[in-house]
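Record type: monomer structure entry
Structure origin: computed from sequence
Chain ID: A
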Amino acid sequence: MMAMNILPRLKTLRLGGMAHSLEYRIKEAGDKDLNYIEFFELLLDDEINRRESKKYERLLKNGCIDAGKRFDSFNFRLSPHVPRGDVEMLMTCEFINRSENVLLAGPSGTGKSHIAQALANEAVKHGYRVLFKQTHKLLGHLNARRADGGFAQYMKKLQGLDLLILDDFGLVQLTPQNANDLYEIILDRYERRSIIITSNRSLREWDEVFGNQLMASAALDRLTHHSHCIEIPKSPASIRQLERRGKLAPVGESDGHRE
């Protein structure tokens, strides 16, 4: 009867966490002989946990982040050249506090994007604002916003992010306008906000992508200053190929990690 009287009020106040667990908490209070303060504390915790969970889900969606790409789902056994200690250190997200960059380079299928997504997941858990985008798609969107008058607004949104992740840098050759926009992003974030960049090209080849040696030199100088660089050598078979062949160990086998 008590729950029937309180539930509509909780829903009116949009206290969904409390409403969802109310009956269970009433039973628990009776079973454990909880006092009113203890009972109320449990309900408050339920509401806080629900709101934190919703916020996390919203930030993942807005940041284009795959919730399944986490550190604990990365298969280091199949990626022996990925420096696990370095990746674990980055998962603390201290590099974001210090406005440092992370550069991940190596052939396709070596786990770069998974690591970047895992860092994005961890950053969101720490309360940071994050966006994960393929480089050419982000620059294409910027160009479209220039055409409809929303360029400055979108650039401001990018500037406000705690962490910007540019995936597959160098996959598509930059146009002069793309190169200029990317340079502006790098310049705006230099020593203020962090960037993660993944690329199939070695770090030595990144200047070729810009098509402008002077701009490339200035951009890369800022990117590599205060940065963590991880270059992953080619593996006999990419993780995606192994996955297609069904040769990846299920979660829980081997070292318990899967990409």
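Annotation 1: DSSP finds twelve helices and five strands in the chain.
Annotation 2: Residues 2-61 form one domain.
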